[in-house]
């Protein structure tokens, strides 16, 4: 297994290009199942999760070709041969459950393995099931698989979600595009990845309004046609790299960065003493004073502070002046990075969903272990600012969500290398 060796090397300066969004691409790719005509995605990120989704779609009979060094995904679901998403693929990546809604809508039946356990929380699918049952689907769990059918086709309905789940919103919106009549989804998730999905579905001929608000209205149509869609910028990759000059000093421009994707995060950076300015190519980030100030953070659904930036923010706050309190409200077990940061000299106390971080002058390099995608990159950020060397093992977690992390950080002056396992 590969590792990444990071040596604290002072301020960072230069430019980092931001890729297309993993979490948008993972819901856009299953949208191909809704139509017989080709769907092409441009600005696609090159990540192992995208490869897993490709394998899943191909296992259903879809054609998926990665062109232009993987930045373009040409897909066609003209001749689907299976309606079963196998456990062997689904257990590798939970987002595989996003084929459930589209298959049910297009084929009238679908069999999708339940994903099983996850490091950051239980992550059940009850909200997905409730949403699709509201559209008239009959769903039962058998041998670890959800067996879903809609013999007479799905029917539009008014449905209020108990929690604004991203995945359940995506599954329901995709399914409702081909349902008979009108669907009104209340308490819908508002994440930019959902706005991007709706833009793509609209380009395929869907009739949808209200994306980005708590109420989404979908007028079902008989069929969807082909389209080409550019994947939105990855706001989590963006936020992650904005924290590099924040934690090390210097000035970095994030190419393709957009403020509207990360509002609540930028407010917290500002409170911590980090300057963020718009440029004609993206966003420029620099630290105002010598040391960042402590801030309190609570994770929330969009437009609140994203849970996918909590670990990275904790790395920054480990070196802040004062004490910060981080509350994780989305996932019940998302502080696995805290004991690893403590190995680097951080002072963190975790009680349930609350972590109290008392800032230290400087972290010290140490061998640490990645436990999940966002935890792994928080250890790399900490290593960039630490004294000496930090060896981060199990970086396969990182490959799921960050392309070319070593090259991107090296380009702004980081001392970082990948060690083949
Ligand atoms: C998406 O996961 C993202 N993944 C996650 O990013 C992200 O952390 C999450 O949204 C929240 O922003 C993708 O888009 C592929 P949810 P998703 O359904 O859709 C509970 C990363 O690092 N819940 O909004 O699975 C659930 O357990 C990943 O890139 C139910 O209880 O998130 C969780 O506590 C990690 N029942 C909360 O809701 C359900 O049926 C939020 O989950 C569904 C969810």
TrEMBL record:
Ranges where the Enolpyruvate transferase domain occurs: 7-409
Amino-acid positions noted as binding phosphoenolpyruvate in the UniProt annotation, renumbered to this chain: 22-23
GO molecular function terms attached to this record: UDP-N-acetylglucosamine 1-carboxyvinyltransferase activity
NCBIfam families: murA, PRK09369.1
Species this protein is from: Ruegeria pomeroyi
SUPFAM superfamilies in the record: EPT/RTPC-like
Record lineage: Bacteria, Pseudomonadati, Pseudomonadota, Alphaproteobacteria, Rhodobacterales
Domain of life: Bacteria
Pathway linked to the protein: Cell wall biogenesis; peptidoglycan biosynthesis
Cellular localisation: Cytoplasm
Biological role stated in the UniProt entry: Cell wall formation. Adds enolpyruvyl to UDP-N-acetylglucosamine.
Alphabetical GO biological process terms: cell division; cell wall organization; peptidoglycan biosynthetic process; regulation of cell shape; UDP-N-acetylgalactosamine biosynthetic process
Family: Belongs to the EPSP synthase family. MurA subfamily.
Reactions listed under catalytic activity: phosphoenolpyruvate + UDP-N-acetyl-alpha-D-glucosamine = UDP-N-acetyl-3-O-(1-carboxyvinyl)-alpha-D-glucosamine + phosphate
Protein name: UDP-N-acetylglucosamine 1-carboxyvinyltransferase
Name of the gene encoding the protein in the UniProt record: murA
EC number: 2.5.1.7
Positions annotated to bind UDP-N-acetyl-alpha-D-glucosamine: 94, 123-127, 308, 330
